[in-house]
Amino acid sequence: MNDIAFLFPGQGSQRPGMGADLIARHPELMDRYYRPADDLLGFELSRLCLEGSAEDLVPTEITQPAVFLTSIAALDVLRGHGIAPSVAAGHSLGEYTALVCAGVLEWTDALRLVRKRGQLMAGVNERTPGAMAAIIGPSARQVEELCAGIRERDGKVVEVANYNHPGQHVVSGERAAVRAAVEAAKAVGAERSVMLNVGAPFHCSLMSALEEEFTAELDQVVFSDPVLPVLANVTSARIRTGAEAKRLLGRQLAGAVRWSDTLQAIAASGIQTFVEVGPGRVLSGFCRSALPEAECYPAGEIRRIDRLLRSLEQVVPLSA
């Protein structure tokens, strides 16, 4: 089979009913993942994933484990069809799923960490209300410069949080400063800017206060060396050891997600087939924008997995 990259989504990809169709065809997923997740966390995450409303899924401390659990279920289904990646990467919280895929973390340990991460991030927003916005059009340098100008002028935090693809960058920080960045982007040719419905200002220096407490959580978990290449958000480079994976997860809280560089690094290795493993199609869109020649497949729902299987069988038959 041609080499494949697995991409795992983060917050913002959630939707009501996610994973329900996976369970309908593969009911064993309930006992394998969903019920154990409920027991581990002490609340019915499975019900929120399968039956919860959009509003139920908004809180960061719910969204993050919900997206993670759905992605793990989708990964299991793909593996059951004999689809295995040559490299893995995850966007923000998706990096935890990528580390599970690469054998660095047990899924139960990753779920605990993701839940704690969401709780800590939500706490930051209670103390210092923040916001995030996607700015579409300007270059990375232009967005960095307008953020720097606002910080110098107003003394407020606003930084580039996500380098998603060359035409889309997400800024994060204090609410007034993020709104100022959205206004300033118009002057440098932004096609449009969108305030994001997120529960906290992720991946900016407002999160730095969490690093010590979260590092203590990371220290309680076993990190194994990767069994396949996995790329880190904050460096866009390959993670070589379990110790490095743990250190980079600590940095990721306040560090920018260098997703565009990550996609380019994967493509530079010769891989041209990308599969988004989890709910939504956000990463598939980023992939098509950054790598127009690549094949990008969302695979978080049964109908999309079926379509992926048909596409890959045209290249080489898959094992059942």
Task: Give structural notes.
The structure is a single chain. 50% of the residues are buried. Helix 4 (60-80) packs parallel to helix 5. It is built from 13 helices and 9 strands. The model is unreliable at 316-320 (pLDDT under 50). The strands form 2 sheets. It has a 5-stranded parallel beta sheet with strand order 7-2-1-8-9, with helices on both faces. The protein has a 4-stranded antiparallel beta sheet with strand order 4-5-3-6. By secondary structure, the protein is α/β, with parallel strands linked by helices. The chain is 48% helix and 14% strand.
- Spans of at least 5 consecutive residues with low confidence: 316-320
Radius of gyration: 19 Å
Distance linking N and C termini: 14 Å
Q: List the total number of helices.
A: 13
| C-alpha geometry | globular
- The level of helicity is 40-55%
Report the count of strand segments: 9
Give the structural class: alpha/beta
Order of strands in the sheet with the most strands? Answer: 7-2-1-8-9
